[in-house]
Amino acid sequence: MFWEQITDISWQMLLMWCIGGLLIYLAIAKDMEPALLLPMGFGAILVNLPNSGAIEVVETLFEAGIANELFPLLLFIGIGAMIDFGPLLSNPRMMLIGAAAQFGIFFTLVAARLMGFHITDAASISIIGAADGPTSVFVAMFFGTPYVGAIIVAAYSYMALVPIVQPPIVRAITTRKERMVRMAYNPSSVSRLTRVLFPIVVTVVAGLISPQAVALIGFLMFGNLIRECGVLNSLSETAQKVLANLITIILGITVAARMQADAFINAQTLMILSLGLLAFVMDTVGGVFFVKFLNLFLKEKINPMIGATGISAFPMSARVITKMALKEDPENHLLMHALAANVSGQIASVIAGGVIMMLIR
C-alpha cells in the first residue's frame, strides 16, 4: 500500500509541495501575511498528497464559504472594524489617489484580453490589481472563472510581497528630491457624527454608482460602523480579532481546493501570476504619476510616494512608504497621509471591482 502511494506521486504534486513549502517559509521565516500564507501553503501540500482524503473536505468548505462568497463578505466585516477613516476624513483629497491607484486593474484587463483570455477570465484576473484578497475572491467567483485558485494565490501572495515589490518600483520612478518632500499633518477634528455617517453615506453612494459592489462595500462599511458607533465595543473587538482571524485561516486553507496539481500546474497559471505582478506594478505607477500630475497645480506639494499607497494592501503599503520616507529623511513622517491614501484605496478597489462586474457580463 505504501509503495503504491509512492508511485502515485507525480512531478506536478512534488512541485505543488515545493510551492506550499515556499508559502510556509515566507509566512514563518519572513513574517509575510502568516495568517494567510501558512494555511495556503499547508493546504497546497494537503490536497496534493496521492489519493488525499482531505480533498473532499476542503472542497466542501470551498462550496460552503467561497463558492457562495460568504467568507469574503464576513472577512470584510472584520477589515472594516479595523480601519480608522479619521486620517482620510481629515484629508479627503486622498480619495483621489486611491481612485487613481486602481489604474492597474483596467490596464491588466486589456493585457489579459490581448493574451487570449476570455473577457470574464480577464476581468477576474485584473482584480488581482485591487491588492485586496477578498475582492479578488468575490469577483472571481462572480464570473465563475476556472482560474480562481491561481487568482487567489496571486492576490494574497503579492499582498504579502508588497514590502519587496513596491520599493524598487517607487525608487525607479521618483527622484530623491521628490521622495524627500515633506508634508505637514494638521488633522482637523472629526466628529463622532461624521464618523458614524461616513460608512452609511459611502454604502448608499457606492450602491447607486456600482450596485454589484454594494455587498462588498456594505459589509466593509458595516464593520466600520460597528467600530465607530461607540456602543458595540465588544463586538468591534470580536470582529477585528476573532472573526477576522478565524475567517482568514479558514479561507487560506479552503483555497487549496483549487490548488490541486492537475488544475494548477499549467501555462495559464504562469500567465496569471505574471499578469498579477503587472497589475501591482501598474497600480503603483498609476498612483505615483497621478500625484506628480496633481503637484503641477498644488501649492503644498504631496510626496509622490504617497501615490503608491493608493493600492488596497492595507496597512502594508502605508508602512512601506513611511519607512522609505524616513530612510530618505528621518524627520519626514508620512504615516497619517499614507494611511489616508491606503484606506481610500480599500474603498476604491471594491468600487472598481463592482464596476468591472457591472460592465462585463
| Percentage of β-strand residues | under 5%
Rough shape?
A: globular
Structural class: mainly alpha
Reported for the largest beta sheet, the result is:
none
Distance between the termini: 49 Å
On the 0 to 100 scale, the average pLDDT is 86
In N-to-C order, the SSE pattern is HHHHHHHHHHHHHHHHHHHH
Number of strands: 0
Task: Kindly summarize this structure in a few lines.
The protein has one domain (2-359). It is built from 20 helices and no strands. The chain has helices at 2-7, 11-28, 34-46, 54-65, 70-82, 86-90, 94-100, 103-114, 119-126, 133-143, 148-160, 162-173, 176-179, 192-209, 214-228, 233-254, 261-264, 267-295, 316-328, 335-359.
Properties at a glance:
single chain, 361 residues, mainly alpha, 72% helix
Explain what this protein looks like in three dimensions.
- The chain has helices at 2-7, 11-28, 34-46, 54-65, 70-82, 86-90, 94-100, 103-114, 119-126, 133-143, 148-160, 162-173, 176-179, 192-209, 214-228, 233-254, 261-264, 267-295, 316-328, 335-359.
- It has 361 residues and is mainly α.
- The longest helix is centred in the C-terminal third of the chain and has 29 residues, at 267-295.
- The protein is globular and about 70 Å long.
- The protein starts with a helix and ends with a helix.
- The model has no long low-confidence stretch (mean pLDDT 86).
